[in-house]
Amino acid sequence: MPPDTLPPVLEARGLTRSYGAVTVVSDVSFTLAPGEALGVLGPNGAGKTTLLKMLSGDVRPSAGQVLFAGVSASDLPQAARCRAGLVRTSQIPQPFSGLTVWENTLTAALHGGGLHGADAEQAAHDALRRSGLLDRHALPAGQLSLMGRKRLELSRALACGPKVLLLDEIAGGLSDFEVQDLVALIREINTSGVAIIWIEHIVHALISVVSRLIALDFGRLIASGTPLEVLASDNFRRAYFGDEPPLELMP
Amino acid sequence: MPRILILAGLGLVLLSLPLWGSGYQQRSVVEFLYFLSLAMAWNLLAGYAGLVSIGQQAFVGIGAYALVVLAEDLGLNPFLTLPLAAAVAALAALPASWLLFRLQGAYFAVATWVIAEVLRLAANASIDWLGGGRGRAVRSLGGFERGLREDITFYAALALAAVAVAGAVWLLRSCTGLGLMAIRDSEPGAQAVGVETTRTKRRVYLFAAAITGAAGALIYITQINVRPDAAFSVNWAAYVIFIVVIGGIGTIEGPIIGTLIFLALREALSGLEGWSMLIFGAIAIAMMLFAPRGIWGLVTERWNIALFPIRRQMPARFIEKETT
Ligand SMILES: Nc1ncnc2c1ncn2[C@@H]1O[C@H](COP(=O)(O)OP(=O)(O)OP(=O)(O)O)[C@@H](O)[C@H]1O
Ligand SMILES: [Mg+2]
C-alpha cells in the first residue's frame, strides 16, 4: 500500500495550548503515515516546539488530542510514550554531562527502549554506530562538540527504539558540512522505517528528506502539502516575507 | 583483584575488632559507621538524585522514637527494632514525598526542614506518650550486660553500614542508577529517554529514609536517652552535609573519607565548643569554592581509581569487533 492509504501512526486532532491569555498553538490537526517524513516550518515563536512537546507528552494540550497508533495518548505521560515508540529530541541538546556517551545511550536503551542486559547493550551499541559516535563511546558527554551533542540526541532517541521520531531543529547552529552529515543520517533513519516529524529552519536540508510540509504561524496551521505547494503558497510567503514579493525563494 | 583484597581485609579488621580493640575504639567505630550510613543516604539524595534535603533529621528522630515505642511500649528487643525503624521511616517518607516532590530546588530543601521542625515540635508537645521535651529513655537496654550490649551494637552498626554502602552501590549499578544520574544531569533529558523521573526519585528517597531511620534507632541505642530537640536536631543534617561535601559528593568513596575527616576534626576541635561549628562551616565553604568535588574528587583527578566502580563501560566484545 502507498503510505497515504495506511492508517496514520500519529494524529494531532485540534491541538491547542494556551499560557494564560496567550494561545501559542491553536487548533492544529494533521496526520502522519507510518514511515512518512513530515517537515514543520514556521517563524520564530510560531509554536513549533510547543506542538512537538504536546505530541511527546511533556506539554499538556489545553484542548485537542494526540492519537498514537490509533489510540488516544492523552493519558500517557512522556516516559510511557517514549517506551511506546514516540520519541522526541530537544531543540537545546540535553546531554547527561556527567555520564559517558556510552552511558547516555545505554540509559535510553534501558529506560525508553525497555530492554535489559545484553539486549540493551546491543541496542545502545547499534544506536551509537548509526549516529557515528562509536569512537567517542568513552568520552564524557559534557565534552562533546555541538555536532557531537546533536548526534548524541539522535543516538539516545534511536536506542529507545522509535516508531516515530520528533526532531526539533536538530541541524540548527551547525556548519554546512555538518548539516549534510546529519541529513544523510536522518534520511537513513527514515528509510529504515521510522516515521519522522522534523522542525527545521534550514529549508533545503528539510526538503531533501521530507515528502510533506506543514507551516505554522502564530500557532495556526497556515499551509500543508508537498514542499513545493507549501513554499509557493500565499500564506507561507506572507508569514515569512510580509506582503513584499521575495527576491529568491526556491533553494 | 586488589580491590577485592582491600575490601576483604577491611572487612576482616572490622569484624574482629571486638576481639582485640578497646571499648573506646569500638565505640568510635560505631560512631564512624552510623555517620557513614547517614552520609551515604544523604549522598544518594543530593549527589545522585539532585534532591538536596536539609531535613533528614526527621528520619533520625522517627527512627529514635520508633526505637522507644517498639522497645518500651511494645516490649520488643531493642536491637530487633532496627529493621522496623527503617520500615517506619520509609513509610513516613512516602506521604512526605507526595508533598515534597511537587517542589523544586530551594523550595524542596526548605520544605524538608519544615517537616523536620514540625515533627520536633510535635514530639516536644506529646508529654504523656513520648515524654515531651525531656523525652524518654530506652530502659530495656539496661537488661543487657554492658560488654554484650556494646558488641551487639557494634555488629548492628557494621550491618547497617554494610547495607547502606552495598545498597547504594547496587542501586547505582542498576538501571535505576543510570536513570538517577541522568535526572541529576538533565531532568528534561531523562524524561525524553523514558526515565520515570518521579518514581525513580521516590525509590531513592524511601531508601535513604530507611537507612537514616535505622541509623537514628542505632544512635539512640548508644545514647539510651531520646530527647526531641536532640533527635530532630538540624545538626544531623549539618554534620552529614559537611561529611559529604568534604569527602566528595556524588561518589561512594567520598562519604567514607568525609566521615573519617569529620570525626578526626571533631576530636581535634572538641575543646572549642561552639566555635567548632563555625570552623566546620568555614572548611565546608572553602571546599565548595576550591574543590567542589571534595577530597575524593582531588584523588580521582590525579589517579584513575575507584574502590566501588559504579560506572558502565562499553563491553569489550563491541570494541574488538571494531578493530577487526
Ligand atoms: N512555558 C511557557 N510559558 C509561556 N509562554 C511560552 C511557554 N513556552 C512557550 N511559550 C511561548 O509560546 C510561543 C511559541 O513558543 P515555541 O517555543 O513553541 O516556538 P517555536 O516555534 O519553537 O520557536 P523557535 O523557532 O524560536 O524555536 C513563544 O512566544 C513562547 O514565548
Ligand atoms: Mg522551537
Mean pLDDT of chain A: 90
Main sheet overview of chain B: 2 strands, antiparallel
Distance between the termini of chain B: 29 Å
User: What integer value in Å does the Rg of chain A equal?
Assistant: 18 Å
Strand tally of chain B: 2
Summarize the amount of helix of chain A as a percent range.
Answer: 25-40%
Question: What is the radius of gyration of chain B?
Answer: 20 Å
Helix content of chain B: over 70%
Distance between the termini of chain A: 32 Å
Transmembrane segments (chain B): 33-51, 82-101, 108-132, 152-172, 204-224, 236-265, 277-299
Membrane topology (chain B): Multi-pass membrane protein
Subcellular location (chain B): Cell membrane
InterPro entries (chain B): ABC_transp_permease, LivM-like
Keywords:
heterodimer, A: 251 residues, alpha/beta, 6-stranded mixed β-sheet, 4-stranded antiparallel β-sheet, 10 strands, B: 324 residues, mainly alpha, two-stranded antiparallel sheet, 2 strands, globular, binds adenosine-5'-triphosphate, binds magnesium ion, transmembrane helix (chain B)
Write up what this structure looks like:
The complex is a heterodimer of chains A (251) and B (324). With 251 residues, chain A is an alpha/beta fold. Chain A is 36% helix and 24% strand. In chain A, the strands form two sheets. In chain A, strands 6-7-8-3-9-10 form a six-stranded mixed sheet, sandwiched between helices. A four-stranded antiparallel sheet of chain A has the order 2-1-4-5, covered by helices on one side. In chain A, strand 7, helix 6 and strand 8 form a beta-alpha-beta unit. In chain A, helix 3 (101-111) packs parallel to helix 5 (146-159) and helix 4 (117-130) crosses helix 5 (146-159). The longest helix of chain A is centred in the last third of the chain and has 16 residues, at 176-191. In chain A, 52% of the residues are buried. Chain B has 324 residues and is an all-alpha fold. Chain B has a domain at 25-234. Chain B has 16 helices and two strands. Chain B has helices at 2-20, 23-48, 57-73, 81-100, 105-125, 127-130, 146-173, 175-185, 187-192, 197-223, 228-231, 235-247, 253-268, 275-290, 294-302, 316-323, and strands spanning 136-137, 225-226. In chain B, helix 2 (23-48) runs parallel beside helix 7 and helix 12 (235-247) crosses helix 13. The radius of gyration of chain B is 20 Å and the shape is globular. The model of chain B has no long low-confidence stretch (mean pLDDT 90). Classes of the chains: A alpha/beta (251), B mainly alpha (324). At the A-B interface, helix 2, helix 3, helix 4 and helix 5 of A face helix 8 and helix 9 of B. The site of magnesium ion has 4 residues of chain A, from helix 1. Chain B: The chain crosses the membrane at residues 33-51, 82-101, 108-132, 152-172, 204-224, 236-265, 277-299. Chain B: GO terms for molecular function: branched-chain amino acid transmembrane transporter activity. Chain B: It comes from Pseudotabrizicola alkalilacus.
